[in-house]
Amino acid sequence: MKTRIHLIIILVLIFVFALQTKAQNFTSSNLPIVIINTDGGASIPDEPKIGANMKIIWHQDGSRNYLSDANTPELLNYDGRIAIERRGSSSQDFLNKKQYGFTTYLVDDTTKNNVSLLGMPEEHAWILNSLPFDQTGMRDYISYELSRELGQYAPRCVYCEVMLNNQYNGLYMLVEKIKVDKNRVNIVKLSPDENSPANVTGGYITKADKTTGGDPVAWTMPSYTYSTDFIHHYPKPDEITTAQNNYIHSIFNKLANTSHDNNESIQNGFPSVIDIPTFVDFMMIAEISSNVDVYQLSTFFHKDRNGKLRAGPVWDYNLAYGYDEFGWRSQYDVWQFSNDDNEGPEFWTDLFNNSTFHCYLSRRWNELTQDGQPFDYQRIIDKIDETNSLISEAITRDNQRWGEMNYHNYYLNDMKEWLSDRIDWITANIGGCEECSNITTPPLVISKIHYHPMPAWGFTEKQLEFIEITNHGDEQVDLSGIYFRELGLTYQFPYGSTIEPHEAIWLCSDPYAFREYYGVEAFGQYTRDLSNKEENLVLADAWGNIIDLVHYHDSLPWPMAADGNGPYLKLIDLDYDNSLAESWTTEYEQDISGLKHNETDNICIYPNPAKETINIGTNNLRHVTIYNTMGQIVFSKAYNEDHAVINVSSFTRGVYMIQVTTNAGLTSRKIVLE
Question: Which domains, ranges and CATH numbers included, belong to the chain?
């Protein structure tokens, strides 16, 4: 008996050694190769991060990557310092192959280094996803790809193979970490001193999740099954202030209350709280995949300053598409928000049960499942096959190292069959969408865009930017609830506001500068600035129905003169398709309203009240005279320019009269020195 046991042990050891030896013969890959060597060959702990060197071998022409390229600088996508730690919860407990989080640093090991890895936008926070519990190796990958195809941000990811401390470590995905960044979750960064009503509204990233990562529970919300814990992701739990916590908590409470009360008012119901399209799209991905954790765990939300609460980004989809390592919860014939398990907070079910929200959900499903659209079954299958072709070689090597994808082909075929059943079931059970299929939107047109002005009159370029919106119809339009629904620029029209037939209105970043420079009043002030590169301006009604859409660029075929050279973009004709670059021209006209004003009215004197200096901006400035209340001249100077700065720090505090002479004549203004 002992002899047999010894023989078995010897055979097992030989088998393991053979696998390891074969894995260690790894020399090349069709995927990028990531090489990590920790300082002193140290094991990577759960926390804190430890120092390491990392190289990434990547032939950008698509040719094969070789370990022997590690010392060829032109073939290295990265060669530098990182700090690395293990990450994950269940994967750490149950699997030998670990996943990691790392930060890229400069050689001083102190300064974080924003870099582009494998073609992804520059950042310093990254994740090596080990594909835990997923024998297909692609459930996360496919889910993130689908989410991006729906028009929502999801972490970018690239497959790679990893060498760790001179040992082959298997197939991984290099993934963007969810964080605030213009190329990731594009919201403003909220500092601890921003607690005023004007600033406390954003930005936030909040998640429903478990606390195994060590972060404390911020608050708990009731569920129709279990309660749901919410955790601050940004600002971090140890950085968020009481005022900020109370504010974002109040937004979730308002969502819970309005959805529970079936309040769909665009003035004070849930459409005034949440961005409907992101919540709909989040449910689309959650339900087509039947993710067993979604809604309850790894469920993110984000909110920009003065913007609506948005669902997403999607995250952690390895237990989905009919597979659940810990049970049988990923079924094709249940709604995941109502499956007697991880249902999440009540507002998901309440939103689904609201007839109007449900209509938009049904409409979106119907759109997405059409031929050639993201949820077209054959299109998804083609994506799965394409992905499998990419990673199949690496999966063989990964199995030799870890033996955790031995049934890859079985689970891949099962996933395909399950998806067919899932799509059929949702289509049969989601219901109709007739009531929201033919929504009429108002004839509002984005007609001018000044995204990159030249500085003038002492104003910065950002102070002078604006968007013009024209009512291209014969009737007054109620603007209530209309908003820009994409991140980057935030504005929602006040309830009860209107625009008259054929009237143009302006939204700007600085109402004072706008009035002084352009000579007209702006309708409203948006939050954040227009991008000098490109931006997707989507004007939508309160339910997210698109009214107008312009995605401008600072490159051809868009008019280049608008990029910092003075002119703004102007729609050639209101009947033209403004989504096309050829429908736009450029114009440089300070009088943007089309109403002619005397040049003497177009004088900017600021600040008022003033303390140290007075700025005067106009066209063809010739002379400035300042009088005190006794009529005495206290300042007089000739000019031949468009901008003057006058030092008044030595003047007695009080009221003065300024006379400004231009080629067009003379104008007088009062100014207060304090």
Answer: 2-176 (no CATH), 204-375 (no CATH), 444-587 (2.60.40.1260), 599-673 (2.60.40.3080)
